[in-house]
Automatic annotation (TrEMBL), chain A:
Protein name: Electron transfer flavoprotein subunit alpha
Ranges for domain Electron transfer flavoprotein alpha/beta-subunit N-terminal: 2-182
Gene3D superfamilies (alphabetical): HUPs (3.40.50.620), TPP-binding domain (3.40.50.1220)
Segments crossing the lipid bilayer: none
Organism: Deinococcus aerolatus
Highest taxon listed in the record's lineage: Bacteria
Family: Belongs to the ETF alpha-subunit/FixB family.
Automatic annotation (TrEMBL), chain B:
Record organism: Deinococcus aerolatus
Transmembrane segment boundaries: none
Protein's UniProt name: Electron transfer flavoprotein subunit beta
Keyword Electron transport set for record: yes
UniProt KW keywords: Electron transport, Transport
Family: Belongs to the ETF beta-subunit/FixA family.
Organism placement in taxonomy: Bacteria, Thermotogati, Deinococcota, Deinococci, Deinococcales
Matching CDD domains: ETF_beta (cd01714)
SUPFAM superfamilies: Adenine nucleotide alpha hydrolases-like
Occurrences of domain Electron transfer flavoprotein alpha/beta-subunit N-terminal (ranges): 21-210
Length: 316, 253
């Protein structure tokens, strides 16, 4: 079977799960597509999952209420072994890329990380992935009775329901106890569209000038055009914006239809997170700013003048 | 405690990347310690300076001859000694973790520090895979850390925010921005580092095979329109941009 570990949050199946199902269908690897749903009170998620999979395995346990790398790795490994999985697909989220290597080690399987394309080549699985801060696309290959891969979010079209809904089965799991104690969690929630789902993103950099300007210009424009809000590391480090909004190597990777960068210089670490956006729009007062090299539309000008005009004009 | 820090060598972030044949060509490129590994080295030194009982800090690198330079930098920053496993072979992170685990065991390490993501291969797997091989817990994307005896406390980023954590040694910690500001090696320390031990090991003495084959590499070039709009008249520029976004790019309604 091809085992796909479902990603879900707030009682809903994540878009990344539907993308992984497409990756599984595209991969040409053998076996029915099996979605594994881990968590607590996940009945609704399992039903959503059944619409796109041949079967759904449900591990609904209090011990799975909180994600933990050691526990997740043990659960996924156990199911992969019992089901003699040929392929294990895990989301390329921060957590997915954190526990997937543990699964690969446990299964003694090769690991293809953060892939954007998958195809079977005989016994092997061939994949593409980005390297060098997403400036290079690399082709890699692995073979073996079982292969573990993480799938980069946004790289595959979300799968549409296929015929009849798959059967759901409750599974029993033998789970380790985590040795890490979580002493407090702070969830950074934005009232806006999640960056991973947003079709348009307005991002502010240090050139925006201040937290107040950020609210006025970046949030103001985003609200007018129904966009998500992003930030550069410089802005996050300065404490103007929460880390959850950071785009780049150490922040989120996004590829919206339009990425509007206000007062952003376009450092390589930032480009690695947004360089795959379909259209890049930049406003910067420095005509030499590197961001213009990757821009489809650019305005050389002061955000203090251009953005209020944009906000006013976009209201109409 | 004994700390193992992992050190990789990568092109300077601003360096141009070029591809020859089926791989990235680093000839003539300035290579530096991977920035995120550097946070790991710095943190090991700070744990010691902060009063934790740190007996030994060892830097480990696996890679070609040139990687010595990155190890010398780590030595000059203040690690006690270094191990270089010299090879031109490219090993994927999960395979490499076998070496890391063997070295950690041989050295009696109880804490491994390394970067959260590699700036060349964009992989985040080495910390987690090494932790699994050793049967240790791992905390990734750590931006705050302190030690009290055998207990580590800190904060790290997770999917939807960040968490405070507490874990007993042994453990693997991956470092990222915000954890610290790495120090620059001073000249006296660079001189001193020359006398520190830099042991060479053979790849052959570790039982490891690559699990991934690398078939090709291509530079990403996406043709961009580069259409510049004059910003002198803000009103007109704004109108023109919106018009293009609506009618040409069709990204706005
Ligand atoms: C290991 C590592 C990881 C990193 N990860 C990330 C990451 O994930 N994300 C990220 O963003 N960065 C990251 N960085 C940092 C990155 O290198 C840059 O420092 C950062 O992206 C710069 O942010 P900025 O463009 O907002 O600020 P700056 O570089 O200060 O640029 C500000 C820009 O605004 C322009 N400007 C100024 N005033 C105005 C005005 N009035 N009107 C119009 N334009 C104006 C300036 O011309 C300039 O181009 C990382 C760095 C390292 C070393």
């Amino acid at each position: 079977m091809i085992l796909v570990v479902a990603e879900h949050a707030g009682g809903k199946l994540g878009k990344s799960t539907l993308e992984m199902v497409t990756a599984a269908r595209d991969s040409g690897r053998e076996g029915p597509i099996t979605l594994l749903v881990l968590g607590q009170d996940v009945a609704a998620v399992a039903t959503e999952a059944a619409a796109v999979a041949d079967q759904v395995l449900v591990g609904d346990l209090p011990a799975l209420a909180q994600y933990n790398p050691e526990v997740w790795a043990a659960a996924v490994t156990q199911i992969a072994r019992e089901g003699e999985a040929s392929t294990v697909l895990i989301g390329g989220s921060r957590s997915g890329r954190e526990y997937a290597p543990r699964v690969a080690v446990k299964l003694d399987a090769p690991y293809l990380e953060d892939v954007i394309k998958l195809s079977a080549e005989g016994d092997a699985l061939q994949a593409q992935r980005y390297t060098f801060l997403a400036r290079v696309t690399e082709t890699v290959q692995a073979s073996g009775p079982v292969i573990v891969a993480t799938v980069k979010p946004g790289s595959f079209a979300p799968a549409a329901p296929a015929g009849a809904a798959g059967e759901q089965y409750d599974i029993e799991l033998d789970l380790p106890t985590s040795r890490t104690e979580i002493t407090g969690k702070s969830v950074e929630k934005s009232s806006r569209v999640a960056l991973s789902e947003a079709e348009i993103i307005v991002t502010g950099g240090r050139g925006v000038g201040s937290p107040e300007n950020f609210a006025q210009y970046v949030e103001g424009l985003a609200d007018n055009i129904g966009a998500g809000v992003g930030a550069t590391r410089a802005v996050v480090d300065a404490g103007w914006r929460p880390y959850a909004e950071q785009v780049g190597q150490t922040g989120k990777t996004v590829q919206p239809k339009a990425y509007i960068a206000l007062g952003v210089s376009g450092a390589v670490q930032h480009l690695s997170g947004m360089g795959k956006s379909k259209n890049i729009i930049a406003i910067n007062k420095d005509a030499e700013a590197p961001i213009f090299k990757v821009a489809d539309y650019g305005i050389v000008g002061d955000v203090n003048q251009i953005v209020p005009a944009l906000i006013a004009a976009s209201k109409k | 405690m004994k700390i193992l820090t992992l050190v990789r060598q990568v092109p300077d972030a601003e360096a141009r990347v070029k591809v020859s044949g089926d791989r990235v060509d680093l000839d003539g490129t300035t290579l530096v310690i991977d920035g995120m590994d550097e946070y790991g080295v710095e943190e090991a030194l700070r744990l010691r300076e902060g009063g934790a009982n740190v007996e030994d800090i060892v830097a480990l690198a696996v890679g070609p001859k040139k990687v010595e330079d990155a190890l010398r930098t780590a030595l000059a920053m203040g690690v006690d000694r270094a191990i270089h496993i010299e090879t031109d072979e490219r090993l994927d992170a999960v395979s490499l973790s076998k070496i890391v685990a063997q070295v950690a065991q041989a050295e009696g390490t109880s804490l491994i520090l390394l970067g959260g993501q590699e700036a060349d291969w964009d992989s985040q797997a080495l910390g987690a895979a090494s932790a699994e091989r050793l049967g240790w817990p791992q905390l990734t994307w750590t931006n705050e850390l302190s030690a009290d005896g055998d207990t580590l406390t800190g904060r790290h980023d997770v999917d939807d925010g960040n968490e405070g954590f507490k874990v007993s040694l042994p453990a693997v910690i991956t470092a990222q921005q915000g954890l610290n500001e790495p120090r620059y090696p001073t000249l006296p320390n660079i001189m001193k580092a020359k006398k520190k031990e830099l042991r060479k090991d053979e790849l052959g003495s570790y039982d490891v095979q690559p699990g991934v084959q690398y078939l090709g590499a291509e530079i990403q070039t996406r043709a961009r329109l580069n259409r510049m709009i004059d910003g002198k008249d803000p009103q007109a520029a704004a109108e023109q941009l919106l018009d293009l976004l609506r009618n040409e790019a069709k990204v706005l309604a």
